[in-house]
Every structure is written in structure tokens, then in C-alpha cells.
Amino acid sequence: MIRSLVLLAGALLLSVASAQTSTVAEPVPSGTPLPGYYAGPLRPQVHYSPPQGFMNDPNGMFIDVDGLYHLYYQFNPTGLVAGNVHWGHATSEDLYTWTNQKIALFPDRPGEQIFSGSAVLDPNNTSGFFPNQTNGVVAIYTLSTGSGQEQVQEIAYSYDNGYTFTKYAGNPVISAGAKEFRDPKAFWHEETESWVVLVAFSQEFVISIYTSPNLIDWTFASNFSNAGLIGLQYECPNLLQMPMEGSHEPMWLLYISINPGAPYGGSIGEYFPGHFNGTHFTAVDAVARIADFGKDNYAAQFFYGIPANENQISIAWASNWQYTNNVPTDSENFRSVMSLPRYNYLTNATRIGYQLVSVPYNIESIFEAQLVSNDSLGNGTVFVDYSSIESGALYFEANVTGLSDMASLQGSVNFTFSSSVSGESVRGGTDLLSGTTWVDRGETRGFDNPYFTDKFSNSAVYDGSGLWRISGVIDRSIIEVFVNGGEESATNTFYPNSPLDTMALSARGINATADVAVAVWSLRSTWAPQQNAEGVVLGNVTQSNSRMRRMR
Ligand SMILES: *[C@@H]1O[C@H](CO)[C@@H](O)[C@H](O)[C@H]1NC(C)=O
Ligand SMILES: *[C@@H]1O[C@H](CO)[C@@H](O)[C@H](O)[C@H]1NC(C)=O
Ligand SMILES: *[C@@H]1O[C@H](CO)[C@@H](O)[C@H](O)[C@H]1NC(C)=O
Ligand SMILES: *[C@@H]1O[C@H](CO)[C@@H](O)[C@H](O)[C@H]1NC(C)=O
Ligand SMILES: *[C@@H]1O[C@H](CO)[C@@H](O)[C@H](O)[C@H]1NC(C)=O
Ligand SMILES: *[C@@H]1O[C@H](CO)[C@@H](O)[C@H](O)[C@H]1NC(C)=O
Ligand SMILES: *[C@@H]1O[C@H](CO)[C@@H](O)[C@H](O)[C@H]1NC(C)=O
Ligand SMILES: *[C@@H]1O[C@H](CO)[C@@H](O)[C@H](O)[C@H]1NC(C)=O
Ligand SMILES: *[C@@H]1O[C@H](CO)[C@@H](O)[C@H](O)[C@H]1NC(C)=O
Ligand SMILES: *[C@@H]1O[C@H](CO)[C@@H](O)[C@H](O)[C@H]1NC(C)=O
Ligand SMILES: *[C@@H]1O[C@H](CO)[C@@H](O)[C@H](O)[C@H]1NC(C)=O
Ligand SMILES: CC(=O)N[C@H]1CO[C@H](CO)[C@@H](O)[C@@H]1O
């Protein structure tokens, strides 16, 4: 969560929100999710976005005992800018099809806000909250006190797999008398049989590590501080074991989000491979590794409950504090979207060393129809008119194959998504000789803001495999591009006045010994099937609510 911006936004909320959010519910419903209209032209169809209101950081991500993924998120249910923060909630079996659930955590007193945090399972009843069950869930979050003068860490427990929480009567569980102290991420450390939590002293550039036998009584263990890029704040730490490709050595990953002060402006995530012994994290080196070369990838969180030797899964908030409160999706009564779920593991990239791979998780599961397949495009171009694809969402990939050596690294592969109505476009491409990949969202005209910068690029090193790859997902107002299977990735939102509906994918100057294989699929909307006759997604409406009855 962000600090003063939220306070500012909170103050502006009454005036701004009342003007903008005529259809936002008031008061906040407690027994049922807010309804959402997911059919608007800017509303992503395979990404998670809130039914209405404003969303930021993913929170509390865990897998329950039935294998269901739970995603909570920073949620302002009464406005379209940051503020009045609750924990919104959604669940999914496949990480693409999300069921909106009732709000999970509410502030109790005026001015209080439930800032970011995490959730764990307590199968052994270490907390004592669960006399009769092994599927107990404990959430740990930051309470921003009513005065806004202090941030403390609190816990809440759930008997019903994370749908309903009871706040612990002895809260707070960690308090440091600090104003900028937040975003607890907890996990069970098997070797020391202990709970561990990381909390950011944001403006001191410190990640403090605490341990506990019971999730209630926490003991300070160590500080990790002033490492990598510091920007103006550290936020949303994660620490987890991360598989390393081609190695059985247990590696850990510390992931920190910084805002403001990212190299591309505003918000970004960085990570540190290293080792953790239960109390201290030691990074392998002093290098700051940036997680994404787009501008809309912040506050990533990793799911709790994936075995340590398996690829991990993360979701980030796909926006940027520089402009998130101004993006034009208020016209569709929501603001912000999550990134695609990403599969993550460490690899040893040629010449670079440790690199966190981030690639869409099981994207094949939402393929609808193959629109293009050509294993031998050469220096050709394929055009796709996807105006008839209802979701407006596509997955594409291009592999340059048969590269024989460095001298064969020539030419480029580009993509353009454009609007046949307005001529607006989002473009990008990859250049083999320099290894540079770029994305340009500047030819969309639905949003003008000095911080909403246009062009992004980054370079990667050819690994000698004979293959150079680019792939991506476009979904109405967000594009995510991946190089070489996720060694580099870029997440960018964009806001066209008219929907993009035409794609060109082309290769030029490719060495005669090489070729290009391309494929494009349409993606099936995961929201459209949830709409009722009025086009509204009600989510999990299991309890009666007067407001919902009115809606129907
Ligand atoms: C639960 O108890 C088992 C047996 O002592 C132990 O191996 C495991 O690490 C514990 N897990 C948690 C989350 O408490
Ligand atoms: C869980 O902890 C509570 C409080 O310590 C205790 O009363 C209860 O017996 C425990 N249940 C189990 C199954 O260990
Ligand atoms: C850890 O960092 C916090 C926040 O800056 C500071 O108050 C505390 O003294 C530090 N502890 C140690 C042991 O350095
Ligand atoms: C963990 O590492 C720290 C710093 O290197 C060290 O002081 C501490 O003794 C280690 N703890 C264990 C259990 O090895
Ligand atoms: C990465 O691979 C290089 C070349 O094989 C090797 O020298 C280096 O030690 C490896 N680094 C890691 C972190 O495994
Ligand atoms: C693949 O692309 C090439 C070059 O543009 C073209 O000649 C060929 O017909 C295409 N093949 C298929 C199966 O579309
Ligand atoms: C194509 O690649 C081959 C093999 O690396 C190289 O010998 C040749 O010079 C390249 N062709 C051109 C036109 O540069
Ligand atoms: C891709 O765009 C770049 C930059 O405009 C250009 O230099 C290159 O020739 C283009 N490649 C293709 C395949 O269109
Ligand atoms: C692609 O263009 C390059 C550079 O003009 C040329 O060397 C190569 O032969 C062309 N490839 C094909 C398959 O035509
Ligand atoms: C591109 O390469 C990847 C990895 O080898 C493969 O899974 C994928 O099917 C290839 N795509 C095309 C269009 O050939
Ligand atoms: C709906 O929510 C209830 C808890 O309020 C939960 O038990 C149930 O599993 C949820 N159903 C679906 C389909 O999400
Ligand atoms: C499944 C079950 O019996 N759950 C109960 C466990 O205990 C809590 C607290 O007493 C009850 O609220 C649950 O219903």
C-alpha cells in the first residue's frame, strides 16, 4: 500500500468519488460481492479486475485445502480512486476464471484502512484458533489507524477456508510505533519449524524479519536493508524458496516493490536471489534485478502453499501509482487490473546469471481457437482481423528457429495491434542482433498523462539454443510481452478510444539459414459466461442482501 497518496486520495474521495461513482454501492455490502459489469470495451476478459471501485495490491494469496486459489486485493468499494481500503476477494480453480466473493476484511472505525498483507494455512493449530479443523486460515495485514499516524500488523482467522474472517481480539500482533510500517508477508519455515514474517519499514528502506511459534507472538530476527534500488520506499516484500533451473540447490528469492522512484518512473518490483536460514536472508550479490520492463507491474505477490521444489506462481497489480487514479476506466466504473498469473523460477541466463523467469501460467487452458499457424513465415507477414473475436483477447508467439551461430542473429519480428476504426495501435517487436525488445503504447489516444510514458525496451542475451522467441497476451487494455519464454517480460496497460481489432505479425531480414514459426490464438472470455441476463456478473451470491434483491 502506498502512504500519503492514500491519505490524499482518501481526503479527495468524497468529492471525487461522489462525482464519478454514481453506481458504486453505498453502504458497502458485507454478505455478498458487489456486482460488476465486465463487458465494457476497456474491461479485460482473461485478467482479474474488481467488479467495481478501485483495486490495487494483490493480498493474501493462498491455495486452500481443496486446491482453490484465493486472491484478495486492496479494494475501495466506494470510490474509483485509492482509499477506504478493504480486502476484496475472488477465488479460482484455474487462475483465469475468477469468482467474485464477498469482501473479506473491513475497517472497523472511521478512517481505518486494511492495508496489504498475506494469508497462511495453520493445519497444526499453532495459533490455537482452530480447535476442530486442519484447514484454518490466518491473514496478517497492516492496519492503518484512524488517525493515519500509525501502521500496525494485525491478524484475523477464518474457519471457512478464507471467506469469512474474525479479527484477533489481541491485535495488533506487531507494532513499532511507526507510521510507514507495512505489508506483512508470512510463511512457515519447515527447517526451523517456525513462522516467519517480513514487514517493510518503507521509508527507512528496511525489510524486517520476525519469527513466531504461533502467528501471534513475534520476535524480531533481522533486518535486510538499503539493498538494490531503493526508490523512495520499499513495499510489499515476499520471501520464498524458488526453484533454480538445472540445479537442486535450494535457492530463495526476496522480492521487494519500490514506489515511487522506479527507473521507468513510479512503481516497479525488484528481486534478490539468495539464501535464508530461518532468521537471516543473504543475497547472492548486490545486484538490483528489475522484474519487468513495462510500467504496469507492481506489488507482486506469490501464492502461499505451492511446494518449494515446484515453480511458484505470482500475480502483480498491473498499474502504476503515477497515474492509476486517473486512467479512463472510470467510465466503466472500475479502476485497475491484475497481471496474468505468472509461473516463476530462477534460471542462469547466459552471461547475466540469475534471472527470474515470469511467463503466463498454463495459458493454453484458455485458448479458444487457433487463428494463425505458420511454421515457415520467413520474411513474411500475417494479418489477423479479430474484430469478430468476442473477447478481443489474443495470445501470440513467434519463434525464430534454426539460428546457427552469432552471425545468424539478424532481422526482427514485430507485432502491431490496431483499430480499424480509429487507426490507434499498440506495437512492439524484437531485434535479434541487439537482443532488444520494445513495446510502444503511444499510438493509443484514450488517456493523456505526462507519466503515462509511451515506449519501453530491454535487452536479453542469446543463449545459443538456436531459438529466439517473443510471445504475448493482449486483452482489450493490457498487453504482456515475454521474451525467450519469460526471461524478460513487460506489462503495459493502454487505453484506445476504439477497440483494437486487427493484428499484423511480421518478420524481416531474418538470416537465410533461419526461419520463423508463428501462432496466434483467440482467448475465451472468463467473464462473459458469468453474466446474467442484464449483463451483470453477480459473483458468489450465497447470502441475501437487500441491495442485491433490488438489482434483480
Ligand atoms: C505441522 O506439523 C508437522 C509435524 O510436526 C510439521 O512437519 C509441519 O512442518 C507443520 N506445519 C505447519 C504449517 O505448522
Ligand atoms: C487448538 O488449540 C486450542 C488452543 O490452544 C486448543 O484448545 C485445541 O485443543 C487445539 N486443537 C487441536 C486439535 O490441537
Ligand atoms: C531494524 O530496522 C528498524 C527500522 O529501521 C530499526 O528500528 C531497528 O533498530 C533495526 N534493528 C536492528 C537490529 O538493526
Ligand atoms: C543465520 O545466519 C545469520 C547470519 O549469517 C547467523 O548469525 C545465524 O547464526 C544463522 N542462524 C542459523 C540457525 O544458522
Ligand atoms: C551460470 O553459468 C555459468 C556458465 O556455465 C557459470 O559459470 C555460473 O557459475 C553459473 N551461475 C550460477 C548462478 O549458477
Ligand atoms: C507461411 O508464410 C509464408 C510466407 O509468408 C507463405 O508463403 C506460406 O504460404 C504460409 N504458410 C501457411 C501454411 O500459411
Ligand atoms: C547468415 O548466417 C550465416 C551463418 O551464421 C552467416 O555465415 C551468414 O553470413 C549470414 N548471412 C548474412 C547475409 O549475413
Ligand atoms: C520493426 O520495427 C523496427 C522499428 O521501427 C524496424 O526497424 C524493423 O524493421 C521492423 N521489423 C519488422 C519485421 O517490421
Ligand atoms: C530474409 O531477408 C534476408 C535479408 O534480406 C535475406 O538474407 C533472407 O534470405 C530472407 N529470407 C528468406 C526466407 O527469404
Ligand atoms: C515456440 O517454441 C516453444 C518452445 O520450444 C514451443 O513450445 C512452441 O510451440 C513454439 N511455437 C511455435 C509457434 O512454433
Ligand atoms: C460462496 O461463498 C461461501 C462462503 O460465503 C463458500 O462457502 C462457497 O464455497 C462459495 N461458493 C463459490 C461457488 O464460490
Ligand atoms: C467444522 C467446525 O465444526 N467448525 C467449528 C470449529 O470451531 C469454531 C469455533 O468454535 C466454530 O465456529 C466452527 O463452526
Automatic annotation (TrEMBL):
Residues 407-521 form the Glycosyl hydrolase family 32 C-terminal domain. GO terms for molecular function: beta-fructofuranosidase activity. Pfam families: Glyco_hydro_32C, Glyco_hydro_32N. Residues 47-347 form the Glycosyl hydrolase family 32 N-terminal domain. The keyword Hydrolase applies. Keywords: Glycosidase, Hydrolase, Signal. Its EC number is 3.2.1.26. Coiled coil: none annotated. It comes from the Eukaryota. Residues 1-19 form the signal peptide. Transmembrane segments: none annotated. Belongs to the glycosyl hydrolase 32 family. This is Invertase. It comes from Coniosporium apollinis.
